[in-house]
Design brief:
Number of helices: 9
Strand order of the largest sheet: 4-7-2-1-17-15-10-13-12
Structural class: alpha+beta
Radius of gyration: 42 Å
Low-confidence stretches: 244-263, 265-282, 289-301, 316-470
Mean pLDDT: 75
Shape: elongated
Number of strands: 17
Order of helices and strands: HHHHHHHEEHEEEEHEEEEEEEEEEE
Length: about 750
Amino acid sequence: MKHGQISSKELSDFIRERATIEEVYSRSMTKLAKTASNCSQLGTFAPVWDVFKQSTEKLAACHMELVRKLQELIKEVQKYVEEQAKNHKKTKEEVASTLEAVQNIQSVSQALQKSKENYINKTLEQERMRKEGATQRDLDKAGLKVKKATETYKSYVEKYANAKTEFEQRMTETAQKFQGIEEEHVLRMQEIIHSYCQSVEETHIQIGEVQEEFVKNMENTSVESLIQKLAESKGTGKERPGNTAKSLTHGAKPRKRKTFAIPENSFYSSSDSEDEDEPRKFHVQIKPVQTNNGTHQHKATIDELKASIGNITLSPTPAVRDASHSIHSFMHRIMQLYNCHVFFFSSNSRLASNDLLSLDPFVPTSSSSSIPHLSVPPPNRPTTPLGTATIVPPPRPLSRPKLPAGKLTGISEAVRPFSPPKMSNSSPPPAAPLARAESSSSLSSNTSLSASNTPTVGTSRGPSPVTLASQDALPIAVAFTESVNAYFKGADPSKCIVKITGDMTLSFPSGIIKIFTSTPSPAVLSFKLSNTSRLEQIMPNQQLLHSDSSQSDTNTKDFWLNMPALTAYLRKSSEQNPAASYYNVDILKYQVCSNGIQSSPLNLVVYWKCTSSTTDLRVDYRYNPESMQSPAALTNVQVLVPVSGGVTNMQSLPNAIWNAEQSKSLWKLSDISDKSENEGSGSLRAKFELSDGPSVPATLAVQFFSEGSTLSGVDMELVGSGYRLSLNKKRFATGRYMADC
């Protein structure tokens, strides 16, 4: 039994050493993949490096998966070692009677041997005395001694027979018990070795599949395809350009131009790199004037606005923050071209007040008083220091006041071709991915903006509770932050476009870094993501997160962290900001399957009626609880509407704020939910008197956010021991949320 315990511990040490070797190999392969990504991206051979990088990363993931399986197997071996020790201790107590039987037969055997020798000696002495002719008295004494030795010898023979019977019975039972223990031990060891072999075999199969995929990719990478990819990436079009205007000056060097492609091919933007001293060339194209109710304005079509929301993809890595900024700038130029108004969050901005999309168009100026009959006074500018304001929505009035008849005429209440219906949940169709910036927020900050342009609300709980002496499960926090982008066109629900993206962030207390760095092999942090069937795309942080691609359950997905990489990241964060109590790590991004207007938490319809002297506006809205996993109130709801035509007076229900400098009207509403008036449905109405009409219907923008729920319903559950979830925050907010007539 002692050798069984030794062999179990030695097998555990062997598997642990194999896991260490596999982990080192996986990290080396990851470094090799980074080397491939750093190779030259110029020339026709550049796509091949992507094939190498992907294949090497998959190989590293295969070996890291084997590490995880071996670590689970080590836990099983250790558990068996503990059970084995308990069974051995119990067995020793059960065979204590056998030990007594052994000791008894040993003592009886020794006494029997001595009595036998005494009997023989006494008998020989009696025979010798007879031969020597001893006296009868001496012979009688010798006979008594022989008789006594014979009786003693006979008694010990009987005792030995009884002790032998008990000994054989006890030893037989004990030997059978020992054999059963050894048979069970060997069977358990065989099961462990079988699991070990199966894990290694599965890894080899995965490696073979990766290698086969690599070979196929290389076979499909022909000379023609490489040349074609280079032409597509460097080319500026498939058609020969037409005649251009002649150069204003001669002898100028050619211009280097970077083009930005858009779906309608309606225009391009260039970035010049020639010297400032060189003469510039201009290509001017004058388009015919388009009329719209007596004004010459360009109006964005629905396809162009769809392009602004639908043709952007998720950013794969944190390195795309600059690219995301370029996309935002580019989309802003598109909207300016078509006279549309689009507002973007900045991931590094701070909200000093609650103005729409962190804009503050209401700086008090003398121009605000140019409307003599303005019924709503301008708002006071907040005096709270930047980044410390508390978001408090205005209280909702008990009842809405009614304007006298004739004040808001022009938009008939009877004509309502569309009232946002209550949709039932159905299977959403695939949707195009949407771009978003990288997260830089903190779970404990109440003023920063997260990766998906949503406010991160929470409070810090003080210094980290984790110390080096901690023996309990280590606390971590998780936050799910989602951004909903929507575009509503008229009263047709089929023209509504909705895109929802999200990200998952883990927060670690600073004290956990010391535990990670002082432990040779900290417990692997594993978790299960639920409701993943609602997600169209999942993009994990490949430097920190691993997953099993062979999982069959479409509604859940298992992940585990690369603990050495996580430790290195947290250590670096601690060096950069040693005073922080918590450190946040962006774990993954995802895109939610959307089903048009059914996925929108707040449905909108806007109506315009424009004449030369007045403009009537009505915005219908309806709260849609079916879009959320757990219906939650929409807070800080704000609606911003640009109105052209020289507004001289505004009347509105409910009261709105007019900014004369920017020609925009702003409604700030209280919370909207299914418990609100009319179950969250309502209308915003306004009448504008104009001096230079008619107005041109513009695109309105909406902002709101919600705490305690997400649109996707995605959730996280820790798997295994060593960690506990101390906080789980969920929220969503608007990204680009627009409506047009």
